């Protein structure tokens, strides 16, 4: 990659960053986490976390990345020389690798479903047969590993080409098409018999369903869908010119992310209640409910194949960002090294992800803390490492960087008022750390002991 390579346009950066944020986090994970976490109450808490904590942190990561103009580890070293803050970048690389190790498994499931659809394996199935199909696919060790490998290979091919010719070019095409198709699906889903009940479940809060763990999941989901706390957005922002409006870009990304989460819920929960699926069905939810919805549509198979293709590419746009942070750290903007290290990290992630891929088959009985390897890696990355990464990122920005420097960087490319800046700074310095710490203490039972 050339030394001066940057995003070629403002919209290119926003779509690439939105692709990182949206991906499987919004389409696959949000519906099933919302289903197990309390529906409308979970969605409201998730919304508040995204706006009041996620947005300030995203702007902060953008400021660090654009100001540093380097890979995540080098940025922290330059901004806090002689300190341990560079560990934030190193932990970010670890988070990206861990997340992609299980994320690629779901990407593989999408590829296997696409193969089934193209070869007629989804024609005329009943609801029970959709369930059986999903169980057969995820328990087949050879198929899951092949699907996972293909997904990682596709990721590597794009990322190896660099920011402009790889990540940005693909994102600018795929993200708008995904929005359009999703809207078509939602319109059809809302005409199903159980649409009213599904909408009620998603949009009307029942706070009696909330637990401390579901609040932690909402916090983790906010960070996971926006890819915060892992230095991914720091890395993406390092390719930005000084003319980019950081607060506006961050707000656009947050709103697109929330909009797609809402669309995913409206696409899936009407089908869930129409066909008698448990909202708390977990990871299989999107793979069981959506085929049933498409089965009720004219030309349903055609639309489902189109959705799977775009679902795959949405997953890939997230995967690009997860591997990019590791590649940026090691390749140091050298195109030849970029290609070599992208393939190296791709193979490493594939090997690390093998236990997750086998978690519903050969290794189904292997459990730690009552979780499969897949669930444990997901939980550790999404609900522990990313929130902790976000906590220390907020502490770094608000306590190690001068307030005047933050204001100067934010105002480059943006007409930011003093009240806006001070509100942002307060949320970043006080509200975000406090919320993260309180949620963790509640989950650990410390608050129950105190009160």
Structure explained in plain terms:
The chain is mainly alpha-helical. It has a single domain, classed as Amino acid/polyamine transporter I, CATH 1.20.1740. It contains 18 helices and two strands. Strand 1 (367-368) and strand 2 (371-372) form a beta hairpin. Helix 7 (163-189) runs antiparallel to helix 13, helix 12 packs antiparallel against helix 13 and helix 13 (300-331) packs across helix 14. The longest helix has 33 residues, at 86-118. It is globular.
**Shape assignment:** globular
Q: Which regions contain 5 or more consecutive residues with pLDDT less than 50?
A: none
> What class do helices, strands and sheet pairing give?
mainly alpha
**How many alpha or pi helices?**
18
Proportion of residues in β-strands: under 5%
Overall average residue pLDDT: 83
Overall helicity: over 70%
Main features:
451 residues; mainly alpha; Amino acid/polyamine transporter I; two-stranded antiparallel sheet; 2 strands
Which helices and strands occur, and which strands form pairs?
Elements: H1 10-37, H2 40-68, H3 72-79, H4 86-118, H5 127-139, H6 141-159, H7 163-189, H8 195-203, H9 212-226, H10 232-237, H11 246-274, H12 285-295, H13 300-331, H14 335-357, E1 367-368, E2 371-372, H15 373-400, H16 403-411, H17 418-443, H18 446-450
Helix pairs in contact: 1-7, 1-9, 1-11, 1-13, 2-8, 2-9, 2-11, 2-15, 2-17, 3-4, 4-6, 4-13, 4-14, 4-15, 5-12, 6-13, 6-14, 7-11, 7-13, 8-11, 9-15, 9-17, 11-12, 12-13, 13-14, 14-15, 15-17
